[in-house]
Amino acid sequence: MQFYSTNNPELRVDLKEAVIRSLPADNGLYMPESITPLPQSFWESWRDMSLPELGFHVAKQILGDSLEDEVLRSIVNEAINFDAPVVKIAEHTHVLELFHGPTLAFKDFGARFMARTMAHLTQDDDSMLTVLVATSGDTGGAVASAFHKVEGTRVIILYPKGGVSALQEKQLTTLGHNITALEVDGSFDDCQAMVKANFLDRDLMLKHNLTSANSINISRLIPQAFYYFNAARQLPDGVEPVFVIPSGNFGNLTAGLLAQSLGLPVRHWVAATNINDTVPRYLSDGNYDPQPSTPTISNAMDVGAPSNFARMKDLFEDNWEAMRENISGVAFDDDETREAIKRVKEETGYTIDPHGAVGVLAAEAWLQASPESETIILETAHPSKFLPTMEEVLGKGSVDVPERLAELADLEKVAHSINNDPKEILKFL
């Protein structure tokens, strides 16, 4: 399987180049040269497969012969060793829990798969691999966990000052060893721009053997497609779900579109954002107008210029009407989000985090117009990762904090403060 740039379909590279270099020189994003629906033999047994088995078949269909079957199966089995259950919280309303991995967030799927894929692809290389990544919340912790103490790698994580929750910050600033955290005086968009600027300097990139762990890296997206299959098979046979996706950088939605391209029956997609509503506005009027991001209580979605939008346009061949027909976009503010957290707890007994609460609001809006639908809301992180907000809304002690997260609270934060100039990264490289 070859991969092309969204800015130049004629540019083709192999899997190692796409994964290790992350970005093409033309500032596009890599996409597989062909996406062929899974064969009938898969659909005859997919509902009885384990999550890792589903993942193997999905990854194999996307990657083709890029990895030997036994290697790919080993990568998937080691990376995806936790569950992703669907929980019904109300009539026609389900939650896909993606927080059962080691860092309690959906980013564990992508980070763990990517770390093992990179390790395989670089096993015969002599030079140190440097993973450069920006985070608006959960990516940093998941990447830090996945690469911690992995020989031959070092990780540099950029995060916006005051832009991640306290426990999210501890997940990426307390591991040490080969993990370095940079606290940027700026927004997530600034962090993302700094990472991209360093990747577009090809000499610098090659000198330091840079790779990215953001969802700009195709190896992050592939395993995120797994859980759409896993979720859909948990509904009754013949039911096509409406997936409701709390969205920031739009990697999750792009992975869902990959799953749909592989043949997964999906009735509709709902992109749910906070007030950083670049994509909902585009879906409304066809005008793509990125704006500086604004901080909210659903911080992982505080993205004004989502990088994966380029892949979304590519999948729809830049056809706005086709995209709008398949995807609805809605946005909600913090007051509405707080109200949803409280109401969901009171009415269903379920504790949902601020990002999932935005998804609940979007699902409710969809069900008003299409009440017979079965919606699946992606719950992307454990509520305890946003403890101040959750306790503000639900009261002190209302959220149980898993031990692996609680034990971080007393650890010392180690981070380097920098401004938002891309050249600031050089001293750490």
What layout of secondary structure does this protein have?
Blueprint: E1 3-5, E2 8-13, H1 15-21, E3 30-32, H2 40-43, H3 51-63, H4 69-79, E4 86-90, E5 93-97, H5 107-121, E6 129-134, H6 138-147, E7 153-160, H7 166-173, E8 179-184, H8 188-199, H9 202-208, E9 210-212, H10 218-224, H11 226-232, E10 242-246, H12 251-261, E11 268-273, H13 278-285, H14 309-315, H15 320-326, E12 327-331, H16 334-348, H17 354-369, E13 375-379, H18 387-394, H19 403-406, E14 416-418
Parallel strand pairs: 5-13, 6-7, 6-9, 7-8, 8-14, 10-11, 10-13, 11-12
Antiparallel strand pairs: 1-2, 1-3, 4-5
What is the overall silhouette? Answer: globular
In CATH, the topology of the domain at 81-104 and 221-400 is named Rossmann fold
Q: How large is the share of residues in beta strands?
A: 15-25%
Total helical segments: 19
CATH class of the domain at 81-104 and 221-400: Alpha Beta
* Counted beta strands: 14
Structure class:
alpha/beta
The low-pLDDT segments are: none
Q: What CATH architecture of the domain at 81-104 and 221-400 would you give?
A: 3-Layer(aba) Sandwich
The percent of residues in helical segments reads 40-55%
Strand order of the largest sheet: 4-5-13-10-11-12
Radius of gyration: 20 Å
Give the CA-CA distance, first to last residue.
32 Å
Kindly state the mean pLDDT as a whole number? 95
- Tell me about the biggest sheet? 6 strands, mixed
